[in-house]
Amino acid sequence: MDNLNSQYDPKITEEKIYAFWTKKGFFDPDKIKPRPKKNFSIVLPPPNITGSLHMGHALNSVIQDILVRYYRMNGYHTVWLPGTDHGGISAESVVGKKLHKEGINKFELGREKFLEKVWEWREEYGNKILAQLKKIGASCDWSRTAFTMDPGYIKAIDKAFIHFHEKGWVYRAERVVNWCPRCKTSLSDLELEHSEEKSSLWHIKYPLLGDEKKFVVVATTRPETMLGDSAVAVNPKDIRYKDLVGKNLVLPIANRVIPIVADSLVDLEFGTGAVKVTPAHDLTDAEIGRRHNLPVIKVINENARMADDVAVAYRGLKAAEARQMIVEELTAAGLIEKIEPYVHQVPKCYRCNSTIELIPSKQWFVKMEDLSKTAIKAVRSNKVRFHPKRWEKVFFDWQRNTRDWCVSRQLWWGERLPVWFCQKEPDNYVVSAREPKKCPFCKKCAMERSTDVFDTWFSSALWPFASFGWPKAAKDLDNFFPTSVLSTARDIINLWVARMIFCSLELTGKIPFSDVIIHATVLTKDGRRMSKSLGTGIDPLLLIDKYGADGMRFGLAWQITESQDLHFNEDNMLAGKKFCNKLWNASRFALMQLQGAKAREYSADTEPAAAAKDTRLILKKLKKIEKSVSKKIESYAFGAAAKELYEFFWHDFCDIYIEKAKVAIRDAKSPKEADNLRASLIYVLANSLKLLHPFIPFITEEIYSIIPVKNKKPLIVENWPKI
After folding, report:
1. CATH tag, 570-717
2. Given the DSSP bridges, would you call strands 185-187 and 170-180 parallel, antiparallel or unpaired?
3. What's domain 189-357's architecture?
């Protein structure tokens, strides 16, 4: 019999064990024989190639790995497919900054040469986060690693867009979008960060047409946009303005006549209850403008400067400069009623930190009405279930109020839209994966492909099926799609989860997954957002170095509840490390009870005959914990399962049973009685290791490789305890 070292060293064991798992191919279901009949699959939410591991990644990876290891041990044909997202703007920004430091101008380099540089960067650094996930013990099948810029995946993106276009759901139009004036591209809401800034709330008098001694006072944080006002809006329930709806005002400075309209989107509580409507520079105003057929007047351009349509005095000024001039002019005219200090959230580009402008821009959109209904129906019919269930309401609210999806970005890095323009008649285009042999419009030109690339979320919306080979018929697609479960964060329910649901149903006729786990957001102990830039981020790799991967995993699993936020407490990592040490020492102690006995192997599958009361009691508790932990893992109650295992092993097994077993073995009346007691001790230890393996895989694999068990397989592919 081999012995365990006197102390457990995770730094040595974890690297050795992970190398053993990968060498033997245990993560690849095709290498596990015979092939199980039941399938279980998860796709890793693809991190950006620019990403590095943070606590949210760590938590989500632990959740997924617990499930994958549990179902693998339960005899399922199990795969956890990893991969990365090309990261659109983030990758382009990182490489652009790198070139700038080297004295290379991106635009002088040109698109093709720049893309070569991005590919070089990706080859060198793009899989960093996947390597970091291995440190946690993620049992992904790395042989199936996918990338959203793989040739096959690009074909899937093209096919999806062409399908939506053929359905009549794709259109090109000028609409208000989030615009980064530095990156020169439209952005999704998730690509924004909001910065709290102290500003002012200006109360401006808009004179009533025909009776300019009377005014409607509007409150605004951006006086410079008033040059693009098309109306003033009030809530139809607001009795203060009941008699004014339908009348006209004179827009100060611009001296245009604008109407007073009633719209339910107006917040009765904001400012004076009357708001300026600037359809070109606010999403809510754009919606009000569409409802009331108001003109769209663009007064801020793509460079965040005043546009050519404003008075000459303001043209070309930065928005802040124009604001100051306008406020001075309004003050001189006696049209400022009051100015209040005001703190508001200013949207910033998440990569360059430039202030985002909302401006009209010609972009490609996908109509959402039918697709949203498809997603809502899938969840309402319980084909897709959210855990915790309360997130369904958030999902429904978003889908009922969703806007058409802007899928184009003005970047170089990414999959270009399969759209070809006539050079003679540039408003005419063809949507096709291949370049048309002949322009159908002018009959002469070589058509030019769109320079726009897809929104990263468009490509990632295809992840659950394109990563398995769609649109081609593929064995993996048949075996593993639809996937079993998705685990992700709440902030991308609308941006990613919903889109995967309706894209999957529309393009494949199948749901992408049956269950969606919305894990808690990891905050600091005092409830602040974790952020490297704020100095509040915590590096999981440092925690692994300090507590071991198993210690960190158990400490994270311990904190998983159904709460919305997880206030990270490093004390739980220390407790996880102590628990691993307890497991190691208890296993050494159990193995020591075999010394002096005839060498033999014990069963981990068949419960031993138990004569002693203490043995009957621990076996009864083991049965109970096996059933309870299985049920909790299957219902995604990971924290509760970890706590039950902790209580059973530390208190029932270590504090009580081991001590009594030691005495009973020593005082046994016969060798047979002593051997039965040893068989019970090893049986409970072996099955405890099985139950703990999904949570703390490294140390359990190491111990299990030592204990004398019949017909033993590596623990990662061992049989889960029979219920």
Report:
1. 1.10.730.10
2. antiparallel
3. Alpha-Beta Complex (3.90)
